[in-house]
C-alpha cells in the first residue's frame, strides 16, 4: 500500500499551517458499549426516519462502524485552518452542490460537470478576491433532507415524506417510501465512489488552472454574458502573463476540494465517527465539514450535541428569526474556547430582510470576540412558487441577498467570508432569471431536482462573476 497518498500532500494554496506527514492516520472504532460521541442519544432527536425494523438498523450501523473512513483527520484539520483564514478575511469560501444528491445522479458525467462548475467559479472568485478560495462541495454525502411534514398526501393517498436517498425513495409508492436502513450502506458507498472521483479530478491535471480558465472562455464567448467580458479579459491577461513569465508550479495543477453535507441522520453520522490515533480525538469521517440546519439546531437537541463532540469544522444555518442569545448560545455549545475556523454561521435570511436582521447578530458576535466564519446561503430564504406551479427562486433575488450580506458586513466591520449555494453542472431550468432570462414557462423544460431548485451551470458562473465584482 502506498503511504504517499497524493491528497495528503498538503494544501496548494497560500493559507494554513505546516505540511503534515503523509502517512494515513489509523482510527479506532468502539466495539459495543457507548462511544464518547454517543452523548446525543440522551437529547431530543428531530427529523429522524421511523425505521420499521430496529434490528436491521443495528446491523447496518455495526457494519458502518467497521468501514474505512471516507475523509482523514489531516484533511479535516487543513480545512479548519482554511476556514480560519476566511474568517480573518484572508480567504473566501465557495460551497456549492445539490440541495439533495441522488444515487441515480452519482454518475461520472454528472459529478464531473458539478466539479467543473465549482472549479470554474473558483477561478473567477480567486481572481476577484485576490485571495485563495476554499472549495467545498455539497457533495459525497448530501443524501438526507429534513422535511416540514412527516407524511405527504397525494390524491387522497398518504405516505411517509421523501427524506433523501439515504432514507427512502422519491417514488410515490408505499414500498418506496418506507425508510430502509440498507440505504445508509448505499450512502457510504456512493460517497466513497464520489470522493474517489473528486480525488482523481482535483489531483490528476483536470483541475489545472489554465484548463479551467479555458472552459471559462467558452462561457464568456456567449453574447448573453457580454457584461462579464472585461473581467474575463483581465483574467485572461493574468493567465497569459503567468505563462509568458514561465510560472509553472504544482499548485497550478491541483486543488483541494472538500466535502460537506448536513449532519442530519444521527445513526449514520455517529457510526462514521472515529478516534484519530494521532490526536486521540473524535473525527466525523463521513465528510470534512458538517452543518446543522435551521430545523434541527435547537440548542439542547441531539444534532448540536453530535457536532459538539467532533473535531471537524462545523456550520449552523441561521434564519431571520435567530436571536442574539440563541446565536451566542450556539457559540457556547460549539466553540466555547473560540477556536478559529471551528464554527461557521451560514446565514439564510431572505433578500428582503437580511439588511435589517443580520447586522444585530454581527454586532453581537463582534462584541463577544470569539471568531466566526460568516457565509451566506442566499438560496433558502428566497424560495417562491412560479405562476406555473413550480418551486423556484429568482436569480436576481438570490444576488440581492448576496449583496445584502456584503452590505451588512461592511456596515458592521465584520468579514463576509463566503457563499454557500445550491447548484448543478447541468443545464436544468429550476431557477428563473439570469442573463438567459429563464421565465416561469421555461421551468417546464428541464426541472429535475428532487427537492429545491438549483442554479444551473450558466447561472452558477454568472453568480461567480457578479460576486467577483463585489469582492474587488
Ligand atoms: N491550487 C490553487 C487553488 O486551489 C490554484 C488553482 C489550480 C485553482 N487550479 C485551480 C484555483 C482551479 C481555482 C480553480 O487555488
Ligand atoms: Mn435545499
TrEMBL record:
Belongs to the class-II DAHP synthase family. Binds 1 divalent cation per subunit. The enzyme is active with manganese, cobalt or cadmium ions. Pathway: Metabolic intermediate biosynthesis; chorismate biosynthesis; chorismate from D-erythrose 4-phosphate and phosphoenolpyruvate: step 1/7. Phosphoenolpyruvate binds at residues 138, 294-295, 317, 348. It catalyses: D-erythrose 4-phosphate + phosphoenolpyruvate + H2O = 7-phospho-2-dehydro-3-deoxy-D-arabino-heptonate + phosphate. It comes from the Bacteria. InterPro entries: Aldolase_TIM, DAHP_synth_2. Residues 1-26 are annotated as: Disordered. It comes from Schaalia canis. It holds the Pfam family DAHP_synth_2. Residues 1-11 have a biased composition (Basic and acidic residues). Keywords: Amino-acid biosynthesis, Aromatic amino acid biosynthesis, Cadmium, Cobalt, Manganese, Transferase. One of its GO terms (molecular function) is 3-deoxy-7-phosphoheptulonate synthase activity. This is Phospho-2-dehydro-3-deoxyheptonate aldolase. Its cofactor is Mn(2+); Co(2+); Cd(2+). It is an enzyme of class 2 (transferase). One of its GO terms (biological process) is chorismate biosynthetic process.
Amino acid at each position: 500500500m502506498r503511504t504517499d497518498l497524493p491528497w495528503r500532500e498538503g494544501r496548494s494554496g497560500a493559507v494554513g499551517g505546516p505540511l503534515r506527514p503523509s502517512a494515513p492516520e489509523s482510527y479506532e472504532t468502539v466495539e459495543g458499549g457507548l462511544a464518547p460521541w454517543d452523548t446525543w442519544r440522551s437529547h431530543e432527536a428531530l427529523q429522524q426516519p421511523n425505521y420499521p425494523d430496529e434490528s436491521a438498523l443495528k446491523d447496518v450501523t455495526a457494519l458502518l462502524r467497521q468501514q474505512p473512513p471516507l475523509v482523514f483527520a489531516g484533511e479535516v484539520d487543513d480545512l479548519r485552518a482554511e476556514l480560519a483564514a476566511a474568517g480573518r478575511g484572508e480567504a473566501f469560501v465557495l460551497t456549492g452542490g445539490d440541495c439533495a444528491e441522488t444515487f441515480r445522479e452519482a454518475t461520472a458525467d454528472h459529478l464531473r460537470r458539478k466539479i467543473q462548475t465549482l472549479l470554474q467559479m473558483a477561478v473567477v472568485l480567486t481572481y476577484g478576491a485576490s485571495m485563495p478560495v476554499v472549495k467545498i462541495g455539497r457533495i459525497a454525502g448530501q443524501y438526507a433532507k429534513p422535511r416540514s411534514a412527516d407524511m405527504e398526501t397525494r390524491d387522497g393517498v398518504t405516505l411517509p415524506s421523501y427524506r433523501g436517498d439515504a432514507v427512502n425513495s422519491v417514488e410515490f409508492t408505499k414500498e418506496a417510501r418506507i425508510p430502509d436502513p440498507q440505504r445508509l450502506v448505499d450512502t457510504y458507498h456512493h460517497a466513497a465512489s464520489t470522493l474517489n472521483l473528486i480525488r482523481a479530478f482535483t489531483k490528476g491535471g483536470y483541475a489545472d488552472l489554465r484548463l479551467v480558465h479555458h472552459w471559462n472562455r467558452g462561457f464568456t464567448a456567449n453574447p448573453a454574458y457580454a457584461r462579464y467580458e472585461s473581467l474575463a479579459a483581465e483574467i485572461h491577461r493574468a493567465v497569459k502573463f503567468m505563462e509568458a513569465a514561465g510560472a509553472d508550479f504544482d499548485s497550478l495543477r491541483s486543488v483541494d476540494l472538500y466535502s460537506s453535507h448536513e449532519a442530519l441522520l444521527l445513526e449514520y453520522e455517529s457510526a462514521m465517527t472515529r478516534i484519530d490515533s494521532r490526536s486521540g480525538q473524535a473525527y466525523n469521517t463521513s465528510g470534512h465539514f458538517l452543518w446543522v440546519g435551521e430545523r434541527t439546531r435547537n440548542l439542547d437537541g441531539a444534532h448540536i450535541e453530535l457536532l459538539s463532540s467532533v473535531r471537524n469544522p462545523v456550520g449552523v444555518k441561521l434564519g431571520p428569526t435567530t436571536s442574539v442569545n440563541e446565536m451566542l448560545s450556539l457559540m457556547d455549545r460549539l466553540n466555547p474556547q473560540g477556536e478559529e475556523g471551528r464554527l461557521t454561521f451560514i446565514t439564510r435570511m431572505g433578500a428582503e430582510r437580511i439588511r435589517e436582521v443580520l447586522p444585530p447578530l454581527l454586532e453581537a458576535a463582534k462584541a463577544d470576540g470569539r471568531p466566526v466564519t460568516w457565509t451566506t446561503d442566499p438560496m433558502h430564504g428566497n424560495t417562491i412558487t412560479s405562476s406555473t406551479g413550480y418551486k423556484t427562486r429568482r436569480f436576481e433575488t438570490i444576488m440581492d441577498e448576496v449583496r445584502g450580506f456584503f452590505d451588512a458586513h461592511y456596515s458592521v466591520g465584520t468579514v463576509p467570508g463566503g457563499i454557500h449555494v445550491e447548484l448543478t453542472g447541468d443545464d436544468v431550468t429550476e431557477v428563473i432569471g439570469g442573463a438567459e432570462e429563464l421565465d416561469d414557462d421555461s421551468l417546464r423544460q428541464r426541472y429535475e431536482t428532487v427537492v429545491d431548485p438549483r442554479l444551473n451551470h450558466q447561472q452558477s458562473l454568472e453568480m461567480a462573476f457578479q460576486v467577483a465584482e463585489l469582492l474587488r
